[in-house]
Every structure is written in structure tokens, then in C-alpha cells.
Amino acid sequence: MKIAVCIKRVADMGARFQIGADGASVSETGIKYDMSDFDEWAVEAALQLNEKHGGGEVTVISLGPDAAQETIRKALAMGADKGVHLKAPAIPFDGFAIAEALAAELRDGGYDLILFGRIAVDSAAGVTGTMVAELLGLPCVTAVSKLEVTGTSGTGERQVEGGVETLSFPLPALCTIDQGLVTQARYPSLKGIMAAKKKPLESKPAQLGAISVSVSKMELPPERSAGRIVGEGAAAVPELIRLLQTEAKVL
User: Fold this and answer.
1) Using H for helix, E for strand and C for coil, what is the string for 93-118?
2) Which residues sit opposite 82 in a β-bridge?
């Protein structure tokens, strides 16, 4: 099966962020970058599908500056077969502009299945995958937590409020992958890292669409006030209740 996985290089969400000098971006000073978690699960899902079906090809595609190639190499080290870097000075916020560039790359690829992470953990917009499906005229199943492919069709499970729904779709199709489809994406082995250096990685200019949405201002949440110790053990309970009633007013 020929599978494409679209991945994004994002800042490590465990970092302490600072707003950049333009007031509308995150300062890159001291920030580490990695593949978005949901995209890692999408890569893992693609690899598992082809392992289960005894062959195939997994292509990873990432849009962004030259540093995006590092993220592509990680996916290649996990086991993907080849990478495509759609070169752009920066990753725009406008999901439709990105979707147009990805659709232009994917359109003639002959892929049976295209996978995205459900969201990118930095923007959390969750729109690019569905936009690409629309541009390519493909069936789209979002937030898939279980995925099976048989012959020319597939089924995907989605977690919904109070239950699970199962959807069927013909191939080719596009799915966005949610947490739960795989418990843990595989770590690149030393052998995989060495092999990734020899795998094909093509870099070409991204055919971005017109950018009509951009971030005009970014703010960090206010610092939380320091906590207060009202005492220890059972003796502190009366004072804690008083404060919850008179100050927090939650009782």
C-alpha cells in the first residue's frame, strides 16, 4: 500500500515559551523542536499498516524551513521509505495556504491512503487535513483511533461522547489520526538512524496558496499567584473551609 504521511515540526511543548520581538510569534531562543505527537502516531500507523500487509511504501511530507528536514529524517529513521520537503521560509498559520501546497504535492502521487495527525500541537487548528481532502476530492475520516484497511476499502473508529462510531470508506482516502490508535510511536533505532541518512529526501519550493489569515498578537497566560499553606493535618480543615467559603466562594 502506498501511504503518505504529512508531518509538522513543532516546538517542544515542555519548553518555557517567550514571545518574540514582533509580539506575534514564539521566540525560538532556547527552544527545541520535534515532530508533533499526533503526526508521530500517524507515521507509526502507516508503518504498522504496511508491516501488516507485507509491504508497501511510506512517504513523509513536511512543509517549512530547512530545519524541517531534521523532522523528516526522524520519520525516515522510524522506518518511512522516503521524504519530501516543501521548502518555505516559515510555516504560515493559514491552514488553507498550507493545504494548497500539500494538495499540489499529493495530487499526482497515486497514494492509497493519506494520513495526518488530528491536530498540530502548536497551533491546535486541526483544519489542514480536512482541507487537503476537500481539495483532492477524497473521503475524509477525522480523529481516527482505530484503522483497518482491506483491499480497496477501510474502516475507522472514532471516539465520540459516550461511545465509539465506526465508519467505512473507499480508498484512496484521507484520515487524521487521534491519540489511541497507537499507544507509543516507535523510537528510531541506531540502525534506523544510519539508514535514514541514505534514504531519498527531495526538497522543492512549497506551492503555498494566498495567505489570508495570520497571527496579529500573541500573549502568554498570566502568572499564577503563589499558593498558601493554611496548616497541616485535620487541624487545618476548619481554616481551609472558611477560606473556601469566604475568599474562593466555592462552598
Assistant:
1) CCHHHHHHHHHHHHCCCCCCEEEEEC
2) 59
